[in-house]
Structure formats: C-alpha cells, structure tokens
Amino acid sequence: MKKFVSESWLVLTMGVVFACLLAATQTSLSGRIVENQQRALNQAILEVVPGLERTEELVIGGNRVFKCADAAGELLGWAVEASGAGFVDKITLVAGLSADGERITGVKVIDNLETPGLGNKIEGPWAAQWRDRDATRSFSVTKATPTVDQNEISAITGATYSSVYVANIVNDVITRIRPLLAEYR
Predict the structure, then answer these.
(1) What is the extent of the structural domain holding 66?
(2) What is the reported pTM?
(3) Which among 29, 47, 52, 140 would be 20 to 30 A from 76, CA to CA?
C-alpha cells in the first residue's frame, strides 16, 4: 500500500501533463477547425444550389438560410443548414430549395459520426437521389425500390437508421422553413 501511494504521483503528473497538451492542441487548432467547417459549408451550398454566384446569410426559423443568387442578382434558390440526431451522434447537412421553395435541389451532409463504411455513406453518392424532389410533401425511406411520386428515398443497405435520420432532418427543416421563405424573396 505504501508503494502504491508513493508512486501515485507519477500517474497524477502524467494526467496533468496530457490534459495540458490536449488543451493546448485544441486551442492552437481551433481557428483551423472553424475555417475547415466554413469551407465545408460553402462547398455544400455550391453543390445544393447549382450556378450560384453570391449568397446572403439570413436566420429564418432558428436556422441559417442562405439566399442564393446568380451574378445578376436573380434568386436561384435557398440553402438551409440543419442538424439533428443521427444513429450515433449529430448529423449536420445543407438542404437546397428552388427559388419558389417547391423543389429540393440537393442535400449534402457536411458533418456526421455515423458508423464508418455504413452510416457515413450518407455523405456520398446516396445523396444524389434528393435532387429535383417535391419539397411540398414529406419524404419517407424505403428498403425497396423507391417510388419518386411517393417521395420515397432509398435506404442505405446496412444503414437504414442513418438514412431515416437524414430524411427526418430534411422533413423537419423544410416543413418549418418553406412557409417563411416568401417574406425574404
């Protein structure tokens, strides 16, 4: 027992040193982390609203909404940043809407901690099926072949929950934001 007490200083010292190193690393990299997050957001906006030249950031219904215009200032559409619960952790995405808010122009997941190799496929080509969909109706996820006129999205094999969570986030944000967009046109 005496030996344990006399050597515990080493464990405590190592704990303090490693905690200080982690805090210093976090502090020194925080600017780069914010910069990378902004870069990912900007890239996602470009992907979900094709042809945009400039954006105006607004806060509508508690969400960051980007009014997207072409070089002449003509409204092309809207990009809405949204987040919600995923299977493992929070999922953050950007949903694009047409200028009139009637069509989804794209969905891009920009941050998630879903299961590698399965759930994180929500960031890949799977998202292409959201393009040019009816934004006036809710989306559902199916394991079978999706029916476009039923607003169905195909689930990722082995990651159905992640697919459902993305659909839930999109349904929630579109339902809340669409009615408010008319004020900002």
Answers:
(1) 44-184
(2) 0.84
(3) 140
